[in-house]
Structure to design on (199 residues):
């Protein structure tokens, strides 16, 4: 089971349609702000801005903590599965050493028991994998909600109508003026909110 993937989590900031529908329903506008002090400040008249999702995910502390949490869970599940598999393999090896000395009925009973154990082990592995996937999906949803909620408030405050997401090699934006990049300010706000939440 792989840990959280950036590609899957990039959807956490792909808020174009969400933000557009929110501003239509509530009259709320979408979030963003100035990215770098050296670029021109984004004014309220610039109603569409963008966030670099690659930077957001690598610099947002909540995402880093989430990744570490999922890696720990994955390693624990792999360790547990490894221990169960080794125990089963030892049992099979022991049977193979003794099978020629066992009576036919005992051999058949042992083989049936080992076959059942193998099926149980496979079922356990599938269930553990499914549980990790469910955890991952739930955590991705939490991440998406955190970013979306922050951007809704931030966009309304700044007067933006839409926040686009940009990701190198996976973006509909071919060019955008750097003055519209609000990534740094969004990351700063998200991290400040997360830090306050942890206290």
């Amino acid at each position: 089971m792989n840990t959280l993937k950036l590609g899957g989590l990039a959807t956490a900031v792909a808020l174009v349609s969400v933000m557009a529908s929110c501003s239509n329903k509530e009259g709320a506008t979408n979030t963003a702000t100035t990215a770098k002090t050296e670029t021109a400040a984004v004014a309220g008249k610039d109603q569409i801005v963008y966030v670099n999702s690659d930077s957001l995910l690598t610099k947002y502390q909540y995402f880093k903590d989430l990744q570490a949490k999922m890696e720990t869970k994955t390693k624990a599940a792999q360790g547990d599965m490894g221990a169960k598999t080794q125990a089963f393999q030892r049992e099979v090896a022991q049977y193979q050493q003794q099978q020629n000395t066992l009576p036919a009925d005992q051999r058949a009973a042992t083989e049936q028991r080992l076959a059942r154990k193998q099926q149980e082990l496979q079922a356990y592995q599938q269930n553990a994998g499914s549980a990790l996937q469910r955890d991952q999906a739930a955590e991705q949803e939490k991440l998406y909600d955190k970013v979306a909620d922050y951007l809704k408030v931030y966009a309304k405050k700044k007067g933006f109508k839409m926040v686009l997401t940009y990701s190198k090699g996976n973006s509909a934006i071919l060019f955008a003026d750097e003055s519209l990049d609000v990534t740094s300010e969004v990351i700063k706000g998200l991290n400040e909110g997360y830090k306050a939440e942890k206290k």
